[in-house]
Amino acid sequence: QVQLVESGGGSVQAGGSLRLSCAVSRYTRSNNLLAWFRQPPGKEREGVAAIYTGDSTTVYADSVKGRFTISQDNAKNTVYLQMNSLKPEDTALYYCAAHSLGGNWYLGNFVYWGQGTQVTVSS
């Protein structure tokens, strides 16, 4: 059973930084995707960033470009999301996901999901 466990969420003031981690277990890596999504209060889930497991190519939502960085540590089976210059609108429950079934990654067509970690940014 593949498991994804997120950590690193918390409360921070606007302009601050957080680093989220997602420990991925029992997942056989191929050239597929690991990704971060978020769901703000009262809104739909949205894609934040994704990374290809094979060559570490990254893609980002426009709303986080230049502020967030996704990375992976294959030795630790962990994917990270470094979030800088946080804004109140970044407040959301953040999820990591593994193994896209195709289509645009930000649509969320992934097989495996974590339980989420809360990020709250105050102004």
State the total count of DSSP E strands: 11
Characterize the largest beta sheet: strand count, sense, and whether it forms a barrel: 7 strands, mixed
Number of helices: 0
Class by SSE composition:
mainly beta
N-to-C order of helices and strands? EEEEEEEEEEE
Shape field: globular
The whole-angstrom Rg is: 13 Å
Q: How would you name the oligomeric state of the polypeptide chains in this document?
A: single chain
* Overall pLDDT: 95
Q: What is the terminal-to-terminal distance?
A: 40 Å
Can you tell me about this structure?
The chain has 123 residues and is mainly beta. The protein contains no helices and 11 strands.
Key traits:
123 residues, mainly beta, four-stranded antiparallel sheet, 0% helix, 53% strand, globular
Quick gist of this model?
With 123 residues, the protein is mainly β. It is 0% helix and 53% strand.
